[in-house]
Amino acid sequence: MEYVFRKATLNDLPQIWVILQKAILRRKEDGSNQWQDGYPNPTVIENDIAKGAGFVMADGDTITGYCAILINDEPAYAEIKGKWLTDGDFVVFHRVAISEDYLGKGLSGKMLNFIEDFAQRNNIHSVKADTNFDNGAMKHVFEKAGYIYCGEVFFRGSSRLAFEKEL
Asked: Where is each N-acetyltransferase domain found (predicted)?
Protein backbone atom coordinates (compact mmCIF):
# COMPACT_ATOMS: atom_id res chain seq x y z
CA MET A 1 0.00 0.00 0.00
CA GLU A 2 1.06 3.54 -0.71
CA TYR A 3 0.60 5.71 2.36
CA VAL A 4 0.67 9.51 2.18
CA PHE A 5 1.92 11.65 5.06
CA ARG A 6 0.52 15.18 5.06
CA LYS A 7 -0.56 18.07 7.25
CA ALA A 8 -3.93 17.50 8.87
CA THR A 9 -6.88 19.76 8.12
CA LEU A 10 -9.95 20.54 10.19
CA ASN A 11 -11.90 18.28 7.80
CA ASP A 12 -9.74 15.39 9.09
CA LEU A 13 -10.68 16.06 12.72
CA PRO A 14 -13.64 13.61 12.93
CA GLN A 15 -11.51 10.69 11.66
CA ILE A 16 -8.55 11.71 13.83
CA TRP A 17 -10.74 11.88 16.94
CA VAL A 18 -12.17 8.39 16.32
CA ILE A 19 -8.62 7.03 15.99
CA LEU A 20 -7.53 8.77 19.20
CA GLN A 21 -10.61 7.65 21.16
CA LYS A 22 -9.89 4.02 20.26
CA ALA A 23 -6.20 4.48 21.13
CA ILE A 24 -7.19 5.95 24.50
CA LEU A 25 -9.35 2.88 25.12
CA ARG A 26 -6.50 0.54 24.07
CA ARG A 27 -4.15 2.26 26.55
CA LYS A 28 -6.75 1.69 29.28
CA GLU A 29 -7.26 -1.96 28.29
CA ASP A 30 -3.48 -2.44 28.35
CA GLY A 31 -3.46 -1.20 31.95
CA SER A 32 -1.71 2.05 31.07
CA ASN A 33 -2.46 5.35 32.76
CA GLN A 34 -1.41 7.24 29.62
CA TRP A 35 -4.18 9.34 28.07
CA GLN A 36 -6.67 8.50 30.85
CA ASP A 37 -7.10 12.08 32.10
CA GLY A 38 -9.03 13.80 29.30
CA TYR A 39 -5.92 14.37 27.18
CA PRO A 40 -5.66 14.36 24.27
CA ASN A 41 -9.02 15.79 23.24
CA PRO A 42 -10.50 17.50 20.16
CA THR A 43 -9.35 20.95 21.31
CA VAL A 44 -5.74 19.73 21.53
CA ILE A 45 -6.00 18.34 17.98
CA GLU A 46 -7.61 21.56 16.70
CA ASN A 47 -4.68 23.49 18.21
CA ASP A 48 -2.18 21.12 16.55
CA ILE A 49 -3.87 21.72 13.19
CA ALA A 50 -4.06 25.50 13.70
CA LYS A 51 -0.30 25.61 14.45
CA GLY A 52 0.46 23.46 11.39
CA ALA A 53 1.77 20.71 13.68
CA GLY A 54 -0.94 18.08 13.12
CA PHE A 55 -0.09 15.37 10.58
CA VAL A 56 -1.96 12.38 9.25
CA MET A 57 -0.90 9.23 7.48
CA ALA A 58 -3.53 8.24 4.94
CA ASP A 59 -4.46 5.35 2.70
CA GLY A 60 -6.47 7.16 0.02
CA ASP A 61 -9.25 9.03 1.82
CA THR A 62 -8.86 6.92 4.96
CA ILE A 63 -6.73 8.33 7.76
CA THR A 64 -4.61 5.52 9.17
CA GLY A 65 -2.67 7.46 11.80
CA TYR A 66 -2.14 10.81 13.49
CA CYS A 67 0.68 12.65 15.23
CA ALA A 68 1.80 16.15 16.11
CA ILE A 69 5.27 17.24 14.99
CA LEU A 70 7.04 20.32 16.34
CA ILE A 71 10.49 21.80 15.89
CA ASN A 72 12.39 22.84 19.05
CA ASP A 73 9.05 23.21 20.82
CA GLU A 74 8.95 21.14 23.98
CA PRO A 75 9.85 23.18 27.07
CA ALA A 76 9.73 20.09 29.32
CA TYR A 77 12.70 18.65 27.43
CA ALA A 78 15.02 21.37 28.77
CA GLU A 79 14.78 19.74 32.21
CA ILE A 80 15.71 16.11 31.59
CA LYS A 81 16.76 13.84 34.42
CA GLY A 82 19.47 12.19 32.36
CA LYS A 83 21.15 13.47 29.19
CA TRP A 84 20.02 13.92 25.60
CA LEU A 85 22.31 12.58 22.88
CA THR A 86 22.44 16.00 21.20
CA ASP A 87 22.03 19.63 22.23
CA GLY A 88 21.04 21.25 18.93
CA ASP A 89 17.82 21.60 16.98
CA PHE A 90 15.34 18.74 17.25
CA VAL A 91 12.02 17.51 16.00
CA VAL A 92 9.63 16.29 18.67
CA PHE A 93 6.49 14.26 18.08
CA HIS A 94 3.48 13.66 20.30
CA ARG A 95 0.05 12.02 20.22
CA VAL A 96 0.96 9.12 17.92
CA ALA A 97 -2.09 6.96 17.21
CA ILE A 98 -2.76 4.33 14.55
CA SER A 99 -6.25 3.42 13.38
CA GLU A 100 -7.57 0.25 14.94
CA ASP A 101 -8.30 -1.06 11.42
CA TYR A 102 -4.59 -0.81 10.55
CA LEU A 103 -2.95 -2.22 13.68
CA GLY A 104 -0.33 -4.93 13.22
CA LYS A 105 0.75 -3.68 9.79
CA GLY A 106 3.92 -1.87 10.91
CA LEU A 107 2.39 1.58 10.56
CA SER A 108 3.92 2.98 13.76
CA GLY A 109 7.35 2.33 12.29
CA LYS A 110 6.26 3.79 8.94
CA MET A 111 5.03 6.90 10.76
CA LEU A 112 8.39 7.28 12.52
CA ASN A 113 10.06 7.04 9.09
CA PHE A 114 7.84 9.88 7.84
CA ILE A 115 8.71 11.94 10.96
CA GLU A 116 12.44 11.31 10.45
CA ASP A 117 12.10 12.32 6.77
CA PHE A 118 10.35 15.52 7.93
CA ALA A 119 13.30 16.25 10.25
CA GLN A 120 15.86 15.69 7.51
CA ARG A 121 13.92 17.85 5.02
CA ASN A 122 14.18 20.61 7.65
CA ASN A 123 17.93 19.93 8.05
CA ILE A 124 17.45 18.65 11.60
CA HIS A 125 19.34 15.54 12.70
CA SER A 126 17.67 14.73 16.01
CA VAL A 127 14.22 13.37 16.80
CA LYS A 128 13.05 13.33 20.43
CA ALA A 129 9.95 11.82 22.00
CA ASP A 130 8.60 10.49 25.26
CA THR A 131 6.10 7.97 26.55
CA ASN A 132 4.61 6.69 29.78
CA PHE A 133 6.52 4.08 31.77
CA ASP A 134 3.58 1.71 31.26
CA ASN A 135 3.19 2.11 27.48
CA GLY A 136 4.89 -1.09 26.39
CA ALA A 137 3.69 -0.80 22.79
CA MET A 138 5.36 2.58 22.25
CA LYS A 139 8.54 1.53 24.08
CA HIS A 140 8.75 -1.43 21.67
CA VAL A 141 8.26 0.88 18.66
CA PHE A 142 11.08 3.15 19.89
CA GLU A 143 13.42 0.22 20.46
CA LYS A 144 12.68 -1.32 17.06
CA ALA A 145 13.25 2.06 15.32
CA GLY A 146 16.64 2.64 16.98
CA TYR A 147 15.68 5.29 19.53
CA ILE A 148 17.93 5.55 22.58
CA TYR A 149 16.60 5.94 26.13
CA CYS A 150 18.00 9.22 27.52
CA GLY A 151 16.28 9.68 30.91
CA GLU A 152 13.07 11.12 32.29
CA VAL A 153 11.10 14.27 31.55
CA PHE A 154 8.10 15.60 33.44
CA PHE A 155 4.70 16.46 31.96
CA ARG A 156 1.53 17.54 33.72
CA GLY A 157 2.80 16.27 37.06
CA SER A 158 4.21 12.88 36.05
CA SER A 159 7.50 11.43 34.91
CA ARG A 160 7.87 10.02 31.40
CA LEU A 161 10.57 8.08 29.57
CA ALA A 162 12.53 10.23 27.10
CA PHE A 163 14.04 8.91 23.86
CA GLU A 164 16.15 10.36 21.07
CA LYS A 165 17.38 9.22 17.68
CA GLU A 166 20.21 10.89 15.82
CA LEU A 167 19.69 10.93 12.07
From this structure: 3-167
Backbone angles phi, psi at 139, to 5 degrees: -60, -40
- pLDDT digit of tens for each residue in the chain (167 aa)? 789 999 999 999 999 999 999 999 999 999 998 999 999 999 999 999 999 999 999 999 999 999 999 999 999 999 999 999 999 999 999 999 999 999 999 999 999 999 999 999 999 999 999 999 999 989 999 999 999 999 999 988 889 999 999 99
Backbone angles phi, psi at 128, to 5 degrees: -120, 150
Residue 94 to residue 129: CA distance in whole angstroms? 7
List beta partners, residue 107. Answer: none
